[in-house]
Amino acid sequence: MRITLCATIVVLSVVGCATPPPPQSEEEAAPVETAAANPEPPSGERIGGVAPRQIIAMFGARLRDGVTDRQLANYRRVFGFGDRDRDGRHSKKEYVDDGRYMTRRARQGIFRAADFDNDGFVTRAEYVNNRIITDEAKEIFDDMDSDGDRRLTVEELVGSGKLRDKQLARAVFKALDTDRNGALIIPEYLRVWGRWARSQAPQSPR
Predict the structure, then answer these.
(1) Are the beta carbons of 34 and 191 closer than 8 angstroms?
(2) By the 8 A CB rule, do 15 and 73 touch?
(3) Global pTM value
(4) Less packed terminus of the chain by CB within 10 Å, N or C?
(5) Which residues lie closer than 8 Å to 172 by C-beta, 6 or more apart?
(6) How many helices and strands, by DSSP H and E, does the chain display?
(7) 10 Å Cβ neighbour count for 27?
(8) pLDDT at 100
């Protein structure tokens, strides 16, 4: 019981526990695989005439400005669990092949998402930046998911009031709903949100 509690504390970003975080579900971790496959948005991309970075700001995303020094310290601590050779970066072998948490597919997805420059390594700054984007995006999703079923409908997004312009809200939902089935799940949502957040995004502090 003490090990489980300690691991949970790490996930909740409470500093003071040195035990690595527990496994995440594949649904929670895998979505970012496709988010980084094309990190840069199409040139001049606009949704309802608005740039992607403006849209996520309208949703209340603060990215680096919304993260406390305590949270940053915890992200860096978690990064250190996988940096076995202490060279300041995760190799594919360290994180994907030799990782102990989640599934291999999930670890591979996170690695690809965090490797923003596609050089085959994830630096601490890249890891932290990916955590900032992903954790905040999930909080925004959960806030809009009024019935808590982990599926976001256009009615829920529009009804959340995060975007005052309802026409823009519907256009944003359409852009996020890549499979066109009328509902967003977290992997699908993060796939687009991650790309938008990374467009012209400053790198997180080391």
Answers:
(1) yes
(2) yes
(3) 0.72
(4) N
(5) 47, 48, 55, 157, 163
(6) 11, 4
(7) 12
(8) 86
Q: Which residue has the tokens 């601590």?
A: 77
Nearest to 29 by CA among 192, 149, 187: 187
Tokens representing 27?
A: 């649904």
pLDDT means over runs of 10, the chain (206 residues): 38 38 41 40 77 95 93 94 93 92 87 90 94 95 97 98 96 96 93 85 50
- Give the distance from CA 37 to its chain's centroid: 14
Burial 133-168 (b: 16+ CB within 10 A, else e): bbebbbebbeebbeeeeeebbbebbbebebbeeeeb
Residue 43: predicted pLDDT: 53
Look up tokens 């579900």; give the residue.
25
Query: Which runs of E-coded beta strand occur in the chain?
Result: 89-91, 121-123, 152-153, 183-184
Cα distance between residue 144 and residue 153, in whole Å? 9
| Euclidean distance between CA atoms 122 and 112, whole angstroms | 9
Beta strands in 34-178 (DSSP E): 89-91, 121-123, 152-153
Q: Which two tokens stand for residue 45?
A: 């991309």
